[in-house]
Amino acid sequence: EYSSCTTEGRNDGNRWCATTSSYDKDKKYGFCPSRDTAVIGGNSEGEPCHFPFVFLGKEYTSCTSEGRGDGKLWCSTTEDYDEDKKWGFCPDQGYSLFLVAAHEFGHALGLDHSSVRDALMYPMYSYKENYPLHQDDIEGIQYLYGSKPGPKPTVPEPNTLTTTSYPETTDDPFFTTPSTKVPENDASVIDSAFEDVLTKKIYFFSGTRFWVYTGKSVLGPRSIEKLGLPNSVQKVEGALQRGTSKVLLFSGEDFWRLDVKTQKIDRGYPKPTEVVFGGVPNDAHDVFQYKGNTYFCRDRFYWRMNSRRQVDRVGYVNYDLLKCAEASGFHY
């Protein structure tokens, strides 16, 4: 029986855990966020966790809440806390998937953000162990659906998403001359994009192909394998600029570094996302930069990482980034 994440059964060192009470029976699992990164707060902010470390004579190989009454995860930044008293909070501590999902479910039911700080629907996240539902949340849902059991509510019509189809160019073998043919059936879904800061060309990725927009013409499509990505990569899910000629391309649990000048992947890649970007989902489906921060999105949630590679916010894509809540029309 395991009470925390483990690397047992793997030869790559990645920490994992079962998502049911019995992995042997259900075979359900997921990777644990890396906590081997810079700590937040305490008396050693910016220093990395030191594993293993000793606390009250016991050795710990991961972040722990031992010695605290608030359940927050922490670690020592030296090998012996008892002797050095150096510590900090683990960067991905304190975010309960249950509370995040419950808040999101409240929005799905029609609840807007609450002005009551202790309410589940308060816009700023706060962790509470054994979270009690606030009376404000109860009154809000009763205002919408009533306080007594009644007929089952009508199932709402599913939202329909209209996509626009764009024309497709011919699959020219090289980006030497822009296509002058009338394009047709171009990619209707863009997985990711980035702008070359030197040439101002914009790269668009869709599935296993990419295009380059020069400002006057579109070059492509071309296979992403031409950049050096393996054929196992079915789409590029995120692109992050690094300097003036490097771009990180994300897919699945790994990322590659592209040299834009040579149009080739640098040696030594891919690398696991969690090795460099600890505390974010390994399988983020959207990765982008905005105002100096890096955002990793998975499902309806986002993780914001600052310039020190610390996760400083977790929130909802629809309500925090896209500001959908203001237009929802639901108030209580």
UniProtKB/TrEMBL annotation:
Binding site for Ca(2+) 3: 82
Annotated GO CC locations: extracellular matrix; extracellular space
Subunit structure: Exists as monomer or homodimer; disulfide-linked. Also exists as heterodimer with LCN2. Macrophages and transformed cell lines produce only the monomeric form. Interacts with ECM1.
GO biological process, one term: extracellular matrix organization
CDD domains the record matches: FN2, HX
Protein function: Matrix metalloproteinase that plays an essential role in local proteolysis of the extracellular matrix and in leukocyte migration. Could play a role in bone osteoclastic resorption. Cleaves KiSS1 at a Gly-|-Leu bond. Cleaves NINJ1 to generate the Secreted ninjurin-1 form. Cleaves type IV and type V collagen into large C-terminal three quarter fragments and shorter N-terminal one quarter fragments. Degrades fibronectin but not laminin or Pz-peptide.
Main location per the UniProt record: secreted
Active site positions, chain numbering: 104
Residues holding Ca(2+) 5: 193, 239, 287
Subcellular location: Secreted, Extracellular space, Extracellular matrix
Cofactor: Ca(2+); Zn(2+)
Domain Fibronectin type-II positions: 1-34, 44-92
Hemopexin repeat residues: 187-231, 233-280
Family, per entry: Belongs to the peptidase M10A family.
Listed name of the protein: Matrix metalloproteinase-9
